[in-house]
Amino acid sequence: MAIVTLHSLDSHQDLAIDPASIGGLRGRITIPGDKSISHRSLMLGAIATGETIVQGLLLGEDPRSTAACFRSMGVEISELNSEKIVIQGIGLGNLQEPADILDAGNSGTTIRLMLGLLAGSVDRFFVVTGDSSLRSRPMSRVVKPLEQMGASIRGRKGNTLAPLAVRGRSLKPIHYHSPVASAQVKSCILLAGLLTEGRTTVTEPALSRDHSERMLRAFGANVEVDPDTCSVSIEGYPTLTGQTVIVPGDISSAAFWLVAGSIVPDSELIIENVGINPTRTGILEVLQDMGADIALENERTVTGEPVADLRVKTAKLKATTIAGDIIPRLVDEIPILAVAAVFAEGTTIIKDAAELRVKESDRLAVMADQLNRMGARVTELPDGLEITGGTGLQGGELDSFTDHRIAMSLAIAALNAKNPTTIHRAEAAGISYPEFFITLKSICQE
Ligand code: S3P
User: Fold this and answer.
1) Which Pfam families match (predicted)?
2) How many angstroms does the Cα of residue 331 sit away from the middle of ligand 1?
3) Contact status, residue 252 vs residue 334, Cβ threshold 8 Å
């Protein structure tokens, strides 16, 4: 049996991993473009005036959903590829009423950020929906502040779930104190704030990723940040001008290789062109604290975002505690950090991470259940996980629950298990990392 095999079953794929013959992971890895920056480049390109060029766009399902939505609102976007795409901006406030429902697919970023722009598109009507996962995720976190700005939004379960119907209205600026540290909430309100006369401010309990702030500034908006209070302000109706955006590799995708390279014996990987925006580098800090051997090389800045190549070598990991303000800086990496913790000596505690319950799946419940099926010792906490590591993993028959980060995290766990593993619905990886399995195969040494 080959080390990594994919079997197609109608629309689903099973991934089989046989760890017995893996003699380490080696190679140079190019990772796909950052998902957050890809979405934002499409959206800001759409609402700016003039041409925006995007290089390195992520070709996963999520940005494809964003591109499809904006195309159906009259924005010309060239065929998607990772080399270079061109967006003909239609100008702020000019999104057209689509002839049909807007489908955000699996993407929380698409629906939540887009709602900010739709809410202020005066006199136009929009219906937005998504797949079954997205239709179960909370939308009140953006509907409430948008209503405070004067938006008209109706949806299932008291306007909290998609499908949502939006009648665009003239909005007013607000100062919103968000109960959650969420870049999606913050960005939604900032985008709505573009369509108001005045200054809109968002204050969060901890700093979330700041890609919107950086890119809005680069396109010409007046954005002010107060890091001490975790507040961001934006002035309405700026002149937004199309730009060239070079999308760095996604550190959330690099995270799988950082953990794989750390836990699989005799490994050394170089991951090229990784975005190391400080609002995203919690994963590096935690892995280094756990004893990982990770070096940053060739650090540089590319169109406003810091980038480096990362070198990782096998290391003995020890347990840690992950809690508090660092959580938003590694929120998408908690499933793969749970895998690292399984192979670390001692008991790792993850707290303050209740947000994981409302991601593409309930990532706390799913990771605890799936890792325990492999023989791990994981206890679910209301807002986290307690993981006693160092006992090794058996193989198992697992499921992604259609969550891309679960599929990839379990695949990495399987590389270091004692017996073969099968992961059902592994194709979910394509949401953020279409080439994941090809890369995985290419770095496995026999
Ligand atoms: C994202 C923000 C995060 C993250 C998601 C992408 C973004 O969500 O989990 O994958 O691009 O703004 P929250 O803002 O809901 O924490």
Assistant:
1) EPSP_synthase
2) 8
3) no
Mutate to test the pocket of ligand 1, among 43, 208, 250, 408 (most ligand atoms within 8 A of CB): 208
What are the structure tokens assigned to 309, written together? 């190549």
Helix (H) or strand (E) holding 51: strand 49-55
pLDDT tens digits, residue range 162-215? 999 999 999 999 999 999 999 999 999 999 999 999 999 999 999 999 999 999
Q: Is 187 in the pocket of ligand 1 (CB under 6 A)?
A: yes
Which of 34, 36, 355 has the most ligand 1 atoms within 8 A of CB, as the residue to mutate? Answer: 36
Q: How far apart are CA 395 and CA 19, in angstroms?
A: 9
Radius of gyration over every alpha carbon of the chain, rounded to an integer in angstroms: 21
CA 144–ligand 1 middle distance (angstroms): 18
pTM: 0.98
Q: Which CA distances in Å does 302 have to 93, 272, 275, 305?
A: 29, 13, 9, 5
Catalytic positions, written as ranges: 332
